[in-house]
Each structure stands twice: as C-alpha cells, then as structure tokens.
Amino acid sequence: MTCFPFSFSRKGRPKTQGSFDVDDDVSGIHNVRLYTYKELRAATADFSQTNKIGEGGFGSVYKGRLKDGKIAAIKVLSAESRQGVKEFLTEINVISDIEHENLVKLYGCCVEENHRILVYNYLENNSLAQTLIGGSQSNIYFNWRTRTKICIGIARGLAFLHEEVRPHIIHRDIKASNILLDKDLTPKISDFGLAKLIPPNMTHVSTRVAGTIGYLAPEYAIKGQLTRKADIYSFGVLLMEIVSGRCNTNTRLPIEEQYLLERMWELYEQRVLVGLVDPAMNGDFDAEEACKFLKIGLLCTQDAPKLRPSMSTVVKMLTSEVDVDDIKITKPGLITDFMDLKVRGAQKSKLDMKDKPDMKNKSYTISSGSDNLDSSTLSSATTTAATLTFTAMYDQSS
Ligand SMILES: Nc1ncnc2c1ncn2[C@@H]1O[C@H](COP(=O)(O)OP(=O)(O)O)[C@@H](O)[C@H]1O
Ligand SMILES: [Mg+2]
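# magnesium ion complex -> structure
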C-alpha cells in the first residue's frame, strides 16, 4: 500500500503517480492516507462491474483488495461531489480522525487529478437494508439479543458524532443502508461527514438526499432546518424498523399498514405495540423490552424536535438507565409524499385527493413556517431518493 501520512511542510507536496497539486497551506492536515489511482484501479480490477457492490447518492462503491492484502470498500465520488483538493482533504482529515467501535473506519483517499475516492474498511455482513429490513434473502438470523446490540451500537455511534466529536457532526442520512455489519454483527455507521464534501458553491444546487422519504424529519424536509434532531428522527425510524423487521414504507401492504410510523402510533394508542414486533422471531423475544424500544422510536420521531431526546439520553433509555414509562408521547411527525408536501406547503393549489384518499389524513400538515418552502424546494418525486435544495448545512441547535 502506498501511504502518505499528511505532514505537509510549507512547500511539501506528496508525490504520487499522476499529478495533483496541493496548496502550500494545507497545514494541520495529518493522519490521512493517500492512495494512488493506479493502486485503487489494481485493487478493483479497473473498477470492474463484478467488483461493484453498490451505488448511492455519492457515487459507486467497489470491493477491492489493497496491496497489503486488506479488503476495502472503495467509494468513487461522482462528479457532483468533486471539490477542490484542499477543501476535500480538510473534510477527509476530520473524518479520518474519528474512531469509534460503531463507526466505519476510513482508511484514506485518492485525490489525483479529478478523482475523489474514499477508501473504507470493508464490512463483511453488508448493510441492515440488505439483511434485516424488508424481508431480504439474507441467511443471517437476527435474534432479539442481536437486535438490541445493533440498536444500542447505532445509538452510541450517533451519540459520539453528535456529542463528542468537535465540531459536532450531523449525519444527515441515517438509514438502514448506512448501517453496515461486521463479522460479529456489530453495527457500524457509514457515510458520516460526507455531506460537507459537497462544494460550498453547490449548496444552492439540488443536493441529493439519499434514502426514502420515510427517514426525513418533517422540519428538515419542509424548512431545511438541519439540527441533530433531524438525525434523531431518522434514528427513531430505523429503531422501529429493526424491531419490526419491516421497512418504514411498504406500498405493497394494505393502505392502513403502509407507513410504519402511523401503524406504530395506532397500536401504541391501542396499547398493543407488541403486535408490531418482527414475526420472524416467532415470539422469542423480551416483549417488555421490545415495546420499550418501540416507544423510544416514537419519542425520537416526535413532530416537535424539542420533544426528541438527545442521542446520549437515547442510549440510556435503551440500556434502561433512564426510564421511559412516564414520558408523555404524542403523535409522531410524518411526511408521506413529497408531491403532497409541496402542494400543501405552497398552499397554492389543491391536490385532487380523490385518487389518493390515503394521503388526506396522513400527510404532515405544514406549519406557519411553510413560507420558507422556496428555500428548501422539493422537486417532483420521480425517484425514491428525493432531490431537495438545502442551504442549511450546520447544526443550529448547538
Ligand atoms: N464499508 C463498506 N463495506 C461493505 N459494503 C459497503 C461499504 N460501504 C458501502 N457498502 C455497500 O455499498 C452500497 C452503496 O453504498 P452507498 O454508496 O453509501 O449508498 P447507500 O448508502 O445509499 O446504499 C451499500 O448499500 C453497501 O451495501
Ligand atoms: Mg451509504
């Protein structure tokens, strides 16, 4: 492996294959390993289709074997994500410094010419999206103990990003496919810190928010208000998915069951939350604990951000250091359709609800802040990955 720990002197320039120019003033950058494009090409058999393991909002991901024998997940950022070398390395430097048992480790990157490539530790057991959520074909069995370990691990990883890393990192894309599992099924959050890799001059351009609508906190989707509470909302949705074994939105189910959060609220009101625990466990789980986890999920997805607990409190709730029994829970906030949101938010035209009777009562009702909609314009929902324009990039709650 060709590694170049960063310790740029004023004139220092790493010499790699191909040319790349690093400003003299990239001081303070250290701890990042640089890979040559040639090496990554060799590791992935020239980025061959057979080595491709996925494609997401930032580009394609390949599995590769590095020179030292390590297996890596090699993420080739798409053209939109390319920013200047200095800005790129500054962000990478922040991510590389972060180490936690529940966060995917970044090995290093490649910044030759136009290439912007991230090299991560490869996780053997794929993501929660491919293994647990939505009746996948995976042969991994997730018993209740494993699920509790996964939920607590994710909560710890996120609490670390939110409360211990300085400056705090808001993930912005907590979802099942960003939770990877190692060989012991320890969960690792991936893609943290990537949001800032979008060049500053692109913040007004449509920024692809990967994932389905179901993970987006209403205030983030509507007003572009980005705080840690938006991540906590997404975590709440994920928590309910892990306990129930189903995806937050499933349009193949009968209408009244399509949205997990709605269903959850209904059963919560009827005091039969246990009915939503994954039937795949055949009743072999701690019912009290499972209902507690679902309640925590409801708390994290409360409509008003201030009602959602911080991630460190969530960890304590999950581990029973903090009691949730006496906390009042109100109806969770939920957005079910972007077109609906746009129309309602703009309050200009009336959507013909006759064709979509299920949306009438379920959609999020826009608050007075909806006038801001233009600064967080929602594009037509042509794909499940919504395209939004956000200007807010920083945590306003800290
Ligand atoms: N470090 C990794 N180890 C193993 N697989 C990974 C890793 N990173 C990403 N992947 C796989 O590549 C897929 C695409 O990742 P990504 O580009 O982040 O898109 P998304 O998170 O939207 O699925 C993931 O769903 C996952 O299956
Ligand atoms: Mg990802």
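# post-check
The two ends are 40 Å apart (CA to CA).
Residues 1-25, 198-211, 342-398 have pLDDT under 50 and may be disordered.
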